[in-house]
User: Which sequence fits this backbone?
C-alpha cells in the first residue's frame, strides 16, 4: 500500500512540475515585452505583397489576370467560335443513328472532333499567328492592336458560316443601331448568331445521316413481324446490318469529307 501511495504522489508531483514549466514559458514572453523587448515584426501587406510603384506594374498585373481569364474560358471559346460545335454534334448523331450507345466512346469522338477542328480552322489560325501574334511578340504591335487584328480572321470565318436570318434576329433583339458593314457587327451579336447557325447545320446533316439507318430498321422490323418473331427486339438484329452497311460504304471517309466540306 505504501508503494502505491508513493507512486501516486510521484505522478502528482510530475504533473505539477510540467504545469509549472508550461506556465513559465507562457509568462516569460509577456514579461519580456513588458520590459521593453522588441515586438515580433508583422508585415503590413498580406503575403508579403508591396504596393505598386509605377502604373506599368498595374497594367502588367491586369494583363496577367486577363490572360488567366482567357485561359479559363478557352473551352467555351473553342466550342462557340470555331467549327467544333457542328463536328461534335454530327458525330454524336452518327453514333445514335447506328445504335451503339458507347462505341466509339466519348473521348474518341471528342478527340476526333478536336483534330478536325484544328484542320478546318488552320487557315484562320495561321492568319492570326502571322498578322497578330508574331508582330506582337516582336514588339511591332501593341496589345490592343494585336487583339483587334486577331479578331478579324475569326470574325470573317463566323460571318461566312452565319445565316443572314440568324444574324438579323440578334440585330433585332439588340435594338441598337444597324451596323453599316460586316466589320461593324459586335461579337456579342455575331457569336450567338453563329452558334445557332451551326446547330441548324449540324441537325440538317444529322437528319440526312438518320435516313439510311432508319430504312434498315424498318426493313428488319417488317421481316421479323412477317416471320412472327415479335419477341425478338429489332435493334438486336438491325445493328449488325447497319454496321455492315456503314463499313461497306466507307462511312468514316464520307462523314469526314462531308463535314469538312460543309464549311466551304
Assistant:
Amino acid at each position: 500500500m505504501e508503494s502505491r501511495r508513493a507512486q501516486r504522489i510521484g505522478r502528482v508531483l510530475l504533473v505539477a512540475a510540467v504545469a509549472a514549466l508550461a506556465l513559465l514559458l507562457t509568462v516569460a514572453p509577456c514579461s519580456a515585452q513588458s520590459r521593453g523587448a522588441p515586438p515580433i515584426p508583422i508585415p503590413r501587406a498580406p503575403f508579403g505583397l508591396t504596393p505598386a510603384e509605377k502604373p506599368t506594374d498595374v497594367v502588367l498585373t491586369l494583363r496577367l489576370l486577363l490572360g488567366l481569364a482567357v485561359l479559363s474560358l478557352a473551352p467555351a471559346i473553342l466550342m462557340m467560335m470555331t467549327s467544333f460545335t457542328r463536328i461534335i454534334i454530327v458525330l454524336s448523331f452518327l453514333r445514335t443513328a447506328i445504335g451503339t450507345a458507347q462505341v466509339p466512346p466519348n473521348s474518341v469522338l471528342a478527340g476526333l472532333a478536336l483534330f478536325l477542328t484544328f484542320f478546318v480552322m488552320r487557315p484562320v489560325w495561321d492568319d492570326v499567328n502571322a498578322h497578330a501574334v508574331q508582330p506582337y511578340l516582336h514588339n511591332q504591335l501593341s496589345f490592343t492592336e494585336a487583339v483587334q487584328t486577331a479578331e478579324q480572321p475569326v470574325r470573317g470565318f463566323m460571318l461566312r458560316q452565319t445565316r443572314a436570318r440568324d444574324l438579323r434576329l440578334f440585330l433585332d433583339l439588340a435594338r441598337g443601331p444597324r451596323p453599316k458593314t460586316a466589320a461593324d457587327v459586335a461579337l456579342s451579336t455575331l457569336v450567338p448568331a453563329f452558334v445557332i447557325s451551326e446547330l441548324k447545320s449540324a441537325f440538317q446533316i444529322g437528319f440526312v445521316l438518320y435516313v439510311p439507318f432508319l430504312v434498315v430498321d424498318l426493313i428488319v422490323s417488317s421481316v421479323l413481324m412477317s416471320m412472327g418473331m415479335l419477341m425478338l427486339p429489332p435493334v438486336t438484329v438491325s445493328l449488325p446490318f447497319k454496321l455492315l452497311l456503314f463499313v461497306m460504304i466507307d462511312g468514316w471517309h464520307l462523314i469526314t469529307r462531308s463535314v469538312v466540306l460543309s464549311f466551304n
